[in-house]
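Reviewer comment 2.1 asked that we show a complete input and output for one of the modelled complexes. We chose the flavin-adenine dinucleotide case, as it is the one discussed in the main text.
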Amino acid sequence: MSDLLPQLASLVGERHVVSGETLRDRPQDFWNNVPTPARALVKPGTTSEVSAVLALCNGNGIAVIPEGGRTNLSQATRSDERSILLSLERLDDIETPDEAGLTVVVGAGVVIQTLQERCAASGLRFGLDFGARGSAMIGGALSTNAGGFQALRYGVTRDMVLGLECVLADGTVLSHLIPFRKDNTGYDLKQLFIGSEGTLGVITRATLRLHPAPVTRNTALLSFADFTAVARTLSRLRRDLRGTLSSFEIMWPEFFDFNVEALYGERRPIGSGASFYCLCEAEGFEPDSDGALFEDVISAALGAGDVADAVIAQSSRQRDELWKIREDFEAEQNFFNVMIDFDISLPLKVMDKFVAEVDAALKSEIPASLGLHVLGHLGDGNLHVTTGLPTPEHASSLKDLVYGLIARYQGSISAEHGIGILKRDYLHHSRSPAEIETMRTLKRALDPRNTLNPGKVI
Ligand SMILES: Cc1cc2nc3c(=O)[nH]c(=O)nc-3n(C[C@H](O)[C@H](O)[C@H](O)COP(=O)(O)OP(=O)(O)OC[C@H]3O[C@@H](n4cnc5c(N)ncnc54)[C@H](O)[C@@H]3O)c2cc1C
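Response of the prediction step:
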């Protein structure tokens, strides 16, 4: 269809259509510095424009790839020379938050950090937070059902959505932007679009849940000799910190020591030689007593012999330095030449055994692998297991090996990053043939011409 670009321009305005030629200068996504192949990138400014663009493309059998901040880790926004990229970045308005109802209505193009800051200015908290907060957008986070650092306290993205507006492949607009939790009026359609990676509809707007913003924050780095003590301490903190625990991030020593060395050299924040390190944070509402309570609970865990050593951050600068160990992956990316990352969920009680088994299997069956870095959101049962290879040669057998082990432990092959293209061939390790066939039935029902983000997820 040679006159597609002028037609798109007539729908959204000429300056909001970027040609395929110009896109060749743009990296494909956060992780791939290769040019973006596409016919064009279109930036609608309203839901009606999104609807018109989708109807036009669907009518002509042209694939549309929705995109937000392009920070996904599953090749979920990959395009080809024939497809149209649909950026939601111009749908970036934030309505005034409802302070009593604890809700806010936002466009899909709002950047996570912008929303966090807007809510904080009103004494409110939007409970989603992760490393890509400065680029990832609400539409992308909803479409991947992102998790992050505070899922322990506020849940995953799915738990934060009250109402949704989205557009189907043929341009039909479904709008149900309700501001309340209780709504048993038939099928909960929004759940189909949350976590479906842009394959069933394009999210344009959402009503999100908010919380009162805590006023205190206490952070500690803890070290442990064994995993049982880590699990006991998580339970203790959940119970004794009176519901204020917001993060509990675990790091196995191979990753922790590597990143401490890369970031701070000899200046270690805590003694060496432990079997596990955990970063925990509590956020509360009692300025006069939260600090003392936090110290008391950590002291009790030290006294009980569960925590081997503890450092409590004395300033926001020290807190940021501790979090950098958990959040900074630059050195790791350089070290693992061909980096292979597994984002998995497992029952907490088998995690340690699983990691030991992966480690042993890699050493014996893939000797070229360059080590094993493990960290994760322990409170949510979510681990990030990363390894690397000098060349891609053994990548596929390495993945088969680890995904096979995840399946044997009955874990999830994608805790929070989604399936995209990268994990599509491994979906059967976590979902049954009947479930995958039901997903296909849904896709066919909502997008019979297969024009919305084709080839992703299933
Ligand atoms: C440093 C770093 C740290 C990260 N940490 C975490 C973490 O802790 N937890 C976590 O869950 N993820 C994490 N991620 C992954 C990533 O940031 C999330 O998946 C994020 O939610 C993607 O948002 P995005 O706007 O970049 O979406 P994109 O990457 O642009 O798109 C993601 C998917 O959503 C679809 N999509 C985008 N917008 C829409 C829309 N409006 N309607 C329909 N479909 C749409 C796309 O087609 C694609 O399938 C991290 C990424 C990085 C780079």
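The pocket of flavin-adenine dinucleotide is lined by residues 30, 65-73, 76-77, 88, 108, 130-132, 136-137, 139-141, 143-144, 146-148, 197-198, 202-203, 416-417, 453, 456 (CB under 6 Å). We note this here for comparison with the apo prediction described in Section 3.2.
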